[in-house]
Amino acid sequence: MNLTTKRGIILMNLGSPDSTSVKDVRRYLNEFLMDERVIDIPWLQRTLLVKGIITPFRAPKSAHAYRTIWTKEGSPLIVLTKQLQEAVQQITTDPVEIAMRYGSPSPAAAFDALTASVRDLEEVVLFPLYPHYAMASYETAVEYAKEIHRRNKYPFKLTTIPPYFDDPRYINALAESMVPYLQNDFDHILFSYHGIPARHLHNKEVQQVQDCIIGGGCEAADPGKRKHCYRYEVFHTTKLVTERLGIPKDKFSLSFQSRLGKGWLEPFTDLRLAEMPAEGIKKLLIISPAFVSDCLETLEELAIRGKEIFMKAGGESYQMIPCMNVHPAWVKTVAGMIDQHTRLQVNVI
Fold it and tell me: Could you write out the DSSP letters of every residue in 221-287?
């Protein structure tokens, strides 16, 4: 580590419970679901809903789900984020720390670690590990880090890497991570993105989910109306990576997973998995580019439960393509985007 540098880096991810105990999972879910950017209703209603209904019901089920993917080292998401930290540190002289939006390590812990290791620290570059802009992912992570930075009155400047859903380096890394799996015989590739409530879309002109999915919506709008539109961004990522790989339009589709209620983006991943075998799609590849690190939503929701749904409906083969995790092309991309950002010294968020 070069202790003469005046800059540090933080890779920020979602977070994970400290263990698979119901108590720890309940604590994590309370922190996560009480975030006003996740469930955007008044505080009292949110409290009654989350702590009185959702968490008591979900905590035991979620604890069981976490046990199916937990490793000897701990939570896969935390382990993989640490591995990414180590890999990026190998190719940059700036010290790299990690932080989570929920749970540990916190942004404050990361800020303090950088302050302790870098004399007269001038700037911290925050790299959110979310390619797409959504209120409940990218936005809440960035705003939380900013809040901690202001509250603790750190003297250094905090700057942020913007969403990179269409960055050629991200698209290339995603494509390279997919290539080995495309050598297998398959009928179709399903791009499954994390769902959000339609009301969270920043493109207010699209009033109905189905209008956008069928008619193109913000994909056809002028660029100014697309800014921070999650639905546009995930469709555009899919378009760019399939073009990069030369995948015909009839060989892939897009869906949304992890819905919590009505009014979420469609089509729903679990329903599509149940429908596809009857449509002649027997051999499926599935990938979730909304995540760069494998986690509960990829390892349990898609790789385990998703496979059960598809195979039970008549599927013959089902292959989950892993997240980029510590793929060399992704490590190089992260370091490259940070390097470009620090050279430009522009905070666009």
Answer: S-GGGTTT-HHHHHHHHHHHHHHHHT--GGGEEEEEE---STTB-SSBHHHHHHHGGGGT--EEEEE
Architecture label for domain 7-164+328-344: 3-Layer(aba) Sandwich (3.40)
Helices (H), the chain: 22-33, 43-49, 55-69, 76-89, 107-117, 140-151, 168-182, 209-215, 230-245, 269-275, 307-312, 328-344
Which two structure tokens, joined as six digits, stand for 68?
Answer: 């199916």
pLDDT digits (tens, 9 = 90+) for 209-218: 455 544 444 5
Rg over CA atoms, the chain: 20
Strand order in 252-257's β-sheet?
A: 252-257, 188-194, 283-287, 317-320
- Domain edges within the chain: 7-164+328-344, 168-320
Q: Between vectors from CA 88 to CA 84 and to CA 90, what angle results, nearest 5°? A: 120
Q: Please give the distance of CA 93 from its chain centroid, rounded to a whole number.
A: 26
- Spell out the CATH class of 168-320: alpha beta
Q: Which one-letter amino acid corresponds to residue 282?
A: K
Distance CA 159, CA 341 (A): 9
Q: What is the DSSP letter of 202?
A: S
Q: Which amino acid is at 169?
A: R
pTM of the predicted protein model: 0.91
**What's the chain's length in residues?**
349
Cα–Cα distance between 75 and 297 in angstroms, integer? 12
Q: Do 7-164+328-344 and 168-320 have matching folds?
A: yes
Evaluate the CA torsion angle 178, 179, 182, 184 in order and state its sign: negative
Q: What percent of the chain has pLDDT over 70?
A: 89
In sequence order, which residues have a C-beta less than 8 Å from that of residue 9 and are 6 or more positions away?
A: 88, 92, 94, 95, 96, 97, 124, 125, 127, 338
* Separation CA 9–CA 11 (nearest Å): 7
- Please write the tens of the pLDDT for every residue from 105-117: 999 999 999 999 9
Q: For helices 328-344 and 168-182, give the axis angle rounded to 10 degrees.
A: 180
Distance CA 57, CA 193 (A): 25
CB-based burial of residue 223 (10 Å sphere; 0-12 exposed, 13-18 middle, 19+ buried)? exposed
Q: What percent of the chain has pLDDT over 90?
A: 82
